[in-house]
Amino acid sequence: MTKKLAMAVAALALALPGTGSAQVKIGFINSITGPEAPIGENLTNGVDMAVEDLKKQGVNVTLVKQDDTGKPQVAMSAMEQLATGDEVAAVVGPYTSATANAVAKLAQQYKVPQVVPAAAKEEITKQGYDWVFRLNAPAHQYAQSLIDAALTFGKPKSIAFIYESTDFGASVAGAGKDYAQKKGLKIVADEAYQKGAPDYRSTLTKIKAQNPDLVFMVSYVADAILLMRQSREVGLKPQAFLGGGAGFDTAQFEGEKDISNLVFSVTQWTPESSKAATAFADRYKAKYGKKPTYHAACAYAAMMVVGETAAKNGGDRKKIRDALANGSWTGIMGKVDFETYEGFTNQNKLVMPVIQYQGGKSETVFPKEAAQKKAVYPFPGWK
Amino acid sequence: MIVFLQSVLSGLLVGGVYALIGIGLTLIFGVMRVTNFAHGELLMLGMYLAWLAFTGLHVDPFLSIVLVAPAMFLWGAFLQKSFVNRVLGALPQNQILLTIGLGLIMSNTVMLIFTSDYRILTTTYSSSSYKLAGLSISQPLLYAFLITVAITGALYWFLLKTDTGQAIRATAQDRDAAQLMGINVRRMSVLAFGIGSALAGTAGALISPTYYIFPQVGSTFTLKAFVIVVLGGMGSVVGATLGGIIIGVAESLSAVYIASGLKELVTFVLFLALLLFKPAGLLGKTRA
């Protein structure tokens, strides 16, 4: 077991030679309480594991955790506290798009390197902020991967969008609408909903009346299950259900076999993507008793990169920023390299795999290189 | 036409459950003049109890209300006796602080025990529906609605026909006069809070198969319950029933004909408009 652990750590070790022990102070802003807390917990777990692994490499991280309760204004005061009060070397987080975007402005202002682990809103790395880095893929990747996959599997003509009216939902759906138009798909419905409402039946009935070939949904956690349950109730039956990550990419959704079967989703990370990733997933499962979500993996990877870089540069913010911008790392998320391209600044280019739930298990089906199973298309109908 | 009928139907069914939440709140307010800001948290406790009964004892969530309702009644009575009773004559802001505080303690305790993970209750009929002339009727929602109707009926009967019920109504009408007539108003307060909590808990158990369960779920419903109660008239049980149905149908229709994201807005505009013309609510009486 120790050997296995050591191997895993070695695999995860980034380009750092085994120097003596170094002390760094890093801030971590996350939704620890509040409505986003269930996903936030995964990020906390990931970061905690990274801190342990860093310690094994001789990097002692003093982690300053701040709770943003999912609210941008709270996240901003947390950032101010970290930047001026705690004087951290760098900041990892926050989780949601709205909070991460609000904090980015302050990171730039206080000149504190910020690494966003899992927020998808396009703008975050599109404002030319050279102190802000993003590890995960931005919103348009979600939509592009899914629509590309659907167009490869079949010949859909029309598409309906239903998404929650948050920064994340609106950015993914917005990017999806642009891309769908570019690909010649007809947009027959465009429904933003208020999250947490118990009843989407009327909206789904309206979409059903349009008879779309594809239904594209974006939602956090449990709304995804509700949407699919109610889709089944009203008998919505497109050629494919496309779930834009987040709630469609959780172990809980996967477990709801009746409704998750044959739904497509897109993800930042799968445990099967590499040996290091599988090893991480096994250790995570042993420690927390559940499968890691991509949030946990992103947070872990972000913390590893930041921890090592900060230790190497003795906690100097300017040097850390330069090292982040110029370096590259390999870990559980594959290669991490913050690049500046197509209007993005310090954005890691990440290829998002498309998965399909088949009999209660997620299988990677797209792109071809990564596919493990053949996709089932079109959707044969509800049982 | 199908779309219209479908949205009215699901609005009605959801509204029924909203009504149950509102009735509990209005009863508490009517008898004690205390606005219970912990109402949503009581509903949340009901959800967790139903979930525990389902996962631990394999009791169907709809049957579990025979366990949830008495448990929540006792809990409510306890809260009333030990906390709420002390602020009955106090300033409204003190009462608000107390109930908000109780709510926070409840939701955070639940979070400590069960973590903040979302729990989903999956029964065999969770996503099943009946088909009727092109309309689909959600099975779990229909059961919840029918049970709500039965409970509301029983409650009406209790309040109108029994001595205790009449005593509760008398206390709600005029606390001092009721006391002079020999009614034990303290006991009525405990009863009212207990019944209110039991109703909130029951509503929680009833929606647990169609919704999801997490410690902060209460706040959504507290707000909704307030709109329902104020819309129907504070303290009026019939008003709360009506208010619940109206809000349910309004939400459902505006989601289809205006925009899903704006349905809350529509409810609140409707609410404000009504208050503008009838400040006491639909069936409320202005108090001197």
UniProtKB/TrEMBL annotation, chain A:
Keyword tags: Signal
Family: Belongs to the leucine-binding protein family.
Highest taxon, organism lineage: Bacteria
Domain Leucine-binding protein, residue spans: 23-355
Pfam families: Peripla_BP_6
Xref: PANTHER family: ABC TRANSPORTER SUBSTRATE-BINDING PROTEIN, LEUCINE-SPECIFIC-BINDING PROTEIN
Signal sequence, renumbered to the chain: 1-22
Keyword Signal carried by entry: yes
Protein name per Swiss-Prot or TrEMBL: Amino acid/amide ABC transporter substrate-binding protein, HAAT family
Protein's organism: Anaeromyxobacter dehalogenans (strain 2CP-C)
UniProtKB/TrEMBL annotation, chain B:
UniProt similarity note: Belongs to the binding-protein-dependent transport system permease family. LivHM subfamily.
Record PANTHER family: AMINO ACID ABC TRANSPORTER PERMEASE PROTEIN, BRANCHED-CHAIN AMINO ACID TRANSPORT SYSTEM PERMEASE PROTEIN LIVH
Cell compartments where the protein resides: Cell membrane
GO terms, biological process: amino acid transport
Protein name: Amino acid/amide ABC transporter membrane protein 1, HAAT family
Key words of the record: Amino-acid transport, Cell membrane, Membrane, Transmembrane, Transmembrane helix, Transport
InterPro entries, sorted: ABC_transp_permease, BCAA_transport_permease
Protein origin, superkingdom: Bacteria
GO cellular component assignments: plasma membrane
TM annotation in the entry: 12-30, 65-84, 96-121, 141-159, 190-214, 226-249, 256-277
Membrane topology: Multi-pass membrane protein
A family per Pfam: BPD_transp_2
An example Gene Ontology molecular-function term: transmembrane transporter activity
Organism: Anaeromyxobacter dehalogenans (strain 2CP-C)
